Amino acid sequence: MLILADTCSVLMLLRIAPDMFSDPLYECVTTAEVLRELKSNQKFRTKYPWLKSLLPSVKCIRNSELDTKDYNTALSTVELLLSTNPINEKTNKVFDLSRVDRHIIACAAANNLTITTGETDIIDFAEQEFSIKSFSALGVLNIWIEKGLVDCNDNLLTVIDDWEQSREAEQATDDIGNFQKLTKNFYLGPAQKAKCKKAKKKLKKD
After folding, report:
1. What pTM value is reported for the model?
2. N or C: which end of the chain has fewer CB within 10 A?
3. pLDDT of 129-145, one tens digit each?
């Protein structure tokens, strides 16, 4: 199973596993559009000072590995669907997808890839219109921990805590529960449930 990482997930996971795109055991790929955005967006360079040193680790899926014909068809379909202003059935709002978001969905649809992202509009559109499955960044991290690819040490917990400080995407309660079962450590990152946030604040005070 190959997992296609968008910009959001790359920024959350790259520090944890710099080899996530070069080591096939991680089963992760990303696109040239994502890499271009990481390189060109000044906000990322300011918000993530560590990114410059790790950018060489981001390897894109090669064009030879993509089904170009199906990709172009899928991208045209994505654009056509969005031109009709479809409503997100979960939020009852119109989808808001960037150019990179659209390429991620088209690439996943054309190549039978799962997506990892924290962007709810990508998750919901991909599932609603193409039945594409997705993982949160924490869900992917749990897979890596189960495989023994990542150890739960102080560095990992610091990065996860930084997810909260950097206002990264909220992670699902089920994924948080799995992380805590796997690692026997309290989750310190962004959570969907207010009670998780309260518990986290209490833990820090203690």
Report:
1. 0.89
2. C
3. 999 999 999 999 999 99
